[in-house]
Amino acid sequence: MIISWKIIVAPITIITLWVLLSIHIFQSNDVDLLEISIFIVSFFLGGFLFYTAYLESRQRQALQLMADNLRTLNETLESRVSERTEDMFRAKIHTDAIIESLTLGLIEYRGDHTVVRLNRAAEDMLGVKRETITGKQLLPADMSKQELSSLGEVTFFTSTEAFPKQKKGNPYEATIDEVSIDYPTRRDLQVITVLLPTAEAGHGLEHNFIKLVRDVTREKLVEKSKSNFITVAAHQLRTPLSAIRWAINLIISDSSRLTPDQISILQSGAKATEQVVTLINDLLDASQIEEGRFGYEFTSGNLADAIRAATTPFTSKAAEKPVTLEVKVPEENPAVTFDQKKLGMVIQNLLTNALTYTPAQGHVGVTLEYGDRFATVTIADTGVGIPADESMRIFTKFFRSKKALVMETSGSGLGLYIAKNIVERHGGHINLESQENRGTIVSFTVPLHAEDIPEE
């Protein structure tokens, strides 16, 4: 500890003055006022110097303690920063290793199409080398270059068009699309596009994008083979089944020579035959959708009339359960371009599900509303609903909910798949919201203007 000079000077000064004044006073019989004043001043001056020296010493000790604490804190902080840096470095190594080992191709790029990262799988699929493209901006003109054509096809596709179609509540929801490329080999790719939030995104700068690319060429070939088999088998089955159905209905129509038991058996057979024929028709429709042969005839018509025509056959079925079937359409309806037969199929598939899985005394409602660019058709029921863990699979082929299987064992699981494809071919979007034991709401949109219908 450094001793302040005031602590040394103060007592020396006081003692010196006192000694001098004491000698003078003892040697002199007369003590004047000046001498007394000097003695008093020297006393207080010494006390003041000693006190300030004491305070300064305490302050020095406090500052020294603070400096020691700051030094310890700094060393601790440096240690933690070093540990955190090492953790981040290890995490980066792990992340890079995972990305490199992915069988999916991964491409990261900025909003201006500057490539940030590619992994090895993406290089192999798209026929590019990361050292030649990383950090460079892709331009539309690069699509004409063979070595960049596949990369451009994947990155330019959906990067600006897909995200406005996402749900408003989740701007980072991924979109899934399929593209075909010819370089370096002919491939069918499934492309998952994810909007990547960045630190600069909140300041009005561009977001980054990540593309996950999966080679589905083999899956497409397998699906095509299965589709061809289903088509051939369905065609071969439909003709004899139609003949059987016709024969059974002919016998039932002349039931005067039949017993009640025979009539009941024939009616059960006719119902089973009808179910199989319906299943075969659904299989053929799904096969034609996959092969792009599900022909459409778009004409201008009244959407409200099409809804009335599609719902009329279900009136008697609703009354039998009984379930209330309510249809609400506007009185004034603009002309809309759509395929009346195919859209009627969508409404019938959705109504079949709603009436089948809504218990007696329930309610099914069909409404039509017009917006600026789209008409929205909504079918809501008070049925058994769909469990939350099954909602993501509801539009896939052959999927049927566990609750649906309990209530109705027959069914192809193709109705919603077909409906989804028909709606999307019209340029619309279908959405399903459901709560278990409370009901389901299915809504789909149809563009009001013919120019919004996608080309074949």
From TrEMBL:
Pfam families xrefs: HATPase_c (PF02518), HisKA (PF00512)
InterPro entries linked: BphY/WalK/GraS-like (IPR050351), HATPase_C_sf (IPR036890), HATPase_dom (IPR003594), His_kinase_dom (IPR005467), HisK_dim/P_dom (IPR003661), HisK_dim/P_sf (IPR036097), PAS-like_dom_sf (IPR035965), Sig_transdc_His_kin-like_C (IPR004358)
Catalytically driven reaction(s): ATP + protein L-histidine = ADP + protein N-phospho-L-histidine
Domain of life: Bacteria
Start and end residues of each Histidine kinase domain: 232-450
EC number(s) recorded for this UniProt protein: 2.7.13.3
A GO BP annotation: osmosensory signaling via phosphorelay pathway
Enzyme class: transferase
Keywords, sorted A to Z: ATP-binding, Kinase, Membrane, Nucleotide-binding, Phosphoprotein, Transferase, Transmembrane, Transmembrane helix, Two-component regulatory system
Residues spanning the membrane: 7-27, 33-54
Record's protein name: histidine kinase
